[in-house]
Amino acid sequence: MTDPAQPTGAAAAPVLSVQGLCVSVRTDAGLVPLVSDISFDLARGETLAIAGESGSGKSITSLAIMGLLPPPAVRVTGGEIRLGDTVLTTLPESRMRGLRGDRIAMIFQEPMTSLNPVMTVGAQLVEAIRAHAPLSRRAAQAEALAALTAVRLSEPARRMGQYPHELSGGMRQRVMIAMALALKPDVLIADEPTTALDVTVQREVLDLLRDLQRTHGTAILLITHDMGVVAEMADRVIVMRRGMVQEMGQVRQIFAAPKAAYTRDLLAAVPRMGQGGDAVPRSTAPVVAQLTDVQVRYDLRGGVLNRVTHRVHAVEGVSFDIRAGETFSLVGESGCGKSTIARAMVGLTPHQGTIRIADQAVGTMTAQSRKSLSAVAQIVFQDPMAALDPRMTVGDQIAEPLLIHGQGNRATRRARAADLMDRVGLTAAQLDNYPHEFSGGQRQRICIARALALTPKLIVADESVSALDVSVQARVLDLLRALKDEFAIAMLFISHDMAVVENISDRVGVMHLGQIVEIGSRAQIFGNPQHPYTRRLMAAVPVADPAAVRPVIPRMAGNSPNPVHKVGAVVPRHRLVAVADGHLVAQAG
Amino acid sequence: MTAMTATRVTDGVWRRLRRRPLALIGMALVATIVLAALLAPWIAPYDPFEQHFDGLTLYGEPLPPGGAFLLGTDLLGRDLFSRLLYGARTSLIIGVVANGAALLIGTVIGLTAGFFQGWIGTVLMRFTDLMMAFPALLLAICLAAVLQPSLWIVAFVIAMVNWVQTARVIYTETTALAARDFIAAQRTLGAGTGRILFRHILPHLVPMIIVWGTLGISTTVLLEATLSYLGVGVQPPMPSWGNIIFENQTYFQSAPWLVFWPGLAIVVLALAFNLVGDALRDVLDPALRGSD
């Protein structure tokens, strides 16, 4: 079992030891186990990943170790957690509080909710440090500054005086890491530390965690759903499902020869880069959606007179077209304008320039034109729970577009809803259920069924699979692909996930700060990326293979960091130059 | 379609309500009070306006509970129990009609302002703020003084004063709802404003309206009492629970029952509606279906 990649072997006494841990929730029906009989040891300097999909009990395990299970319903019902010589499971809360932060620290998925919005970063760090160490304010401040420097935050002295909202997501997560590591804990629990971050930022944060671990010898317990992150970070892996350990072992062994059937399924479902298939000739089907020089700007008001002083150029001069039966994807990081385009195409956001869908101009949003647009263009949102009315049965919601458009009678509408449910892999018997009675993947199927009800010519999928577990994601992608082929629907697929995009697209556009920097067929973009930003995006994607060599990310140069411009300022447009048939790349200048 | 869904959402509401003991208690209390108000002429032992000669002691003090007068007599020698029965009519009308009207006005204004925003929203909400800043009691007194006081005028005045909080709360909730994805989804399905408002936003506001409605009953009954006390409410000798308290409050130390019984009646009325409202809110929520 010894692996050369793991210098600190099991010879040393484990820092953290969990034996036979069981966590249960008390319900009306008695105790329901959330985690059953999980055991592991964590050695100094080691990274142990707990991987699993939602509901697997991975986060509950980490909360149990921190003693942060939500009382009184959820509690530890068996087993023992040891931190060095201290048994945490029987430790009173007063003493547990002293250990938290000092010897075990935790970082969460969403740094904005973990930081206090009305305290400066420096003040929060100083408070955290002084809570555990008898330092003077001045000494604690020096310590805090050192911690911020250690997490490679730019201008650490200035950051001390800033508030969390003034920092970007990646900077906030660095602050959280600085706070967690300032006291040099023995164990750091990182619960989905990079899930809310853009892929290039994720890479930087993961690198940082690894470096800090090397210097301090901290043991890291990494909770994640992302097998790519597991492969990059972990020494050992525990795969969990429904509260039970499916498999446990060295990372290379798990990825190379998974023993449990579930692990195999999980790894098979992970979308990987380089599996896009061969180049296909450009479709000659009729154009369904055509965008010409589309701009979307938001006004920012300021000054004494509350005049418009700046504008966010969310989308700037974007042009592309999508043909029937074709999937066009827009990729880019958060804030690049890809979702704004999606919303503009279904008439949810006003725009300038022309968008034509099925020979119909999107723009003048009268009730009548909105209605006729809805018959040809539909959108599937990211979060299906939010996109469905929680107080209406799914049958009524799927039939509702037909009702709005006055198609059929009650019986035929219901029959059509039943038919659509069947088509997306659900049953007609579930028509009278409410959205909360379905799982996340099923809800997204319901949204897809609703979008299909009017047999649209274009479906806009705005991060439609991003909130789903990988195994569910793979099946929803298959469904989308099958439906698109069956009905010859044109699809605009919006995603930040390069691997998913490579799997589903025919053509791809890469967006950066509101403009397309590279556009071409899937084979052209993924096989021969030309623009530095495209390359950087691809290099940053975590590869679900522990043996893979991670390329160094090239830094972007000469790009303005945000799309906010003064009123009247001329925004430099990228000039797209063809490097091959249908493959256009932005030229600098 | 609407009818079909309506039957489905309300399907089994009565069955589910019946399984909740607190809801049953609340409904029993409401039914008792309503019956008492309706049947007052038949069950009241005395005429509520008659000043009994033997209703006062030799020193002119009201009689304590027990004896010929079940709950005692008031300072004019009238039977308190009979007055409470008749007073239930007034208080119920105020509690249900005035409060209902206030809820309706508040909901319409809050919903319109929250959904349409823009200048119409600004105008409506600034007007609401103005009303909120203006002392409600002063406004009620002015209105009641201009208009001849009667039961219905009092109900109208209370409605004019009490819609403000509802409007504020409904406004906030509507703005939050209107920004959610399922409303955007409705727009992309081609749904018109009416459909979005009445089929997708209003149903989500129902629990809040129920809660405000039940809470409002006690405040309206008390506001009516205050107005009556100030002489601009329900005019004596017509009894209401509020004016019984205020008529007799000077005797609080020597004849506490005169304040205790009508006070208890108001508390029971408010509590009963609260219990029913709470249960109704839970029962109408599909997410809680089957959890009881």
Automatic annotation (TrEMBL), chain A:
Domain ABC transporter as annotated: residue spans: 16-267, 300-538
Keyword field: ATP-binding, Cell inner membrane, Cell membrane, Membrane, Nucleotide-binding, Translocase, Transport
Subcellular location: Cell inner membrane
Highest taxon of the lineage: Bacteria
Gene3D superfamilies: P-loop containing nucleotide triphosphate hydrolases
Family annotation (SUPFAM superfamilies): P-loop containing nucleoside triphosphate hydrolases
GO cellular component, one term: plasma membrane
SMART domains: AAA
BP-aspect Gene Ontology terms: peptide transport; transmembrane transport
PROSITE patterns: ABC_TRANSPORTER_1, ABC_TRANSPORTER_2
Molecular-function GO terms, alphabetical: ATP binding; ATP hydrolysis activity
Keyword Nucleotide-binding: yes
Membrane topology, from the record: Peripheral membrane protein
Family per similarity comment: Belongs to the ABC transporter superfamily.
Protein's UniProt name: Peptide/nickel transport system ATP-binding protein
TrEMBL record, chain B:
Mode of membrane association: Multi-pass membrane protein
Keywords, in A-Z order: Cell membrane, Membrane, Peptide transport, Protein transport, Transmembrane, Transmembrane helix, Transport
Coiled coil: none
Ranges that cross the membrane: 21-43, 63-81, 93-116, 136-161, 205-230, 257-276
Keyword Flavoprotein appears in the UniProt entry: no
Domain ABC transmembrane type-1: 88-277
A Pfam family matched in the record: BPD_transp_1
Any one Gene Ontology cellular component term annotated for this protein: plasma membrane
InterPro entries tied to this protein: BP-dependent_transpt_permease, MetI-like, MetI-like_sf, OppC_N
Localization: Cell membrane
Main location: membrane
Gene3D superfamilies according to UniProt: MetI-like
PANTHER family on file: D,D-DIPEPTIDE TRANSPORT SYSTEM PERMEASE PROTEIN DDPC-RELATED, OLIGOPEPTIDE TRANSPORT SYSTEM PERMEASE PROTEIN APPC
The name this protein goes by in its record: Peptide/nickel transport system permease protein
The species this protein was found in: Loktanella fryxellensis
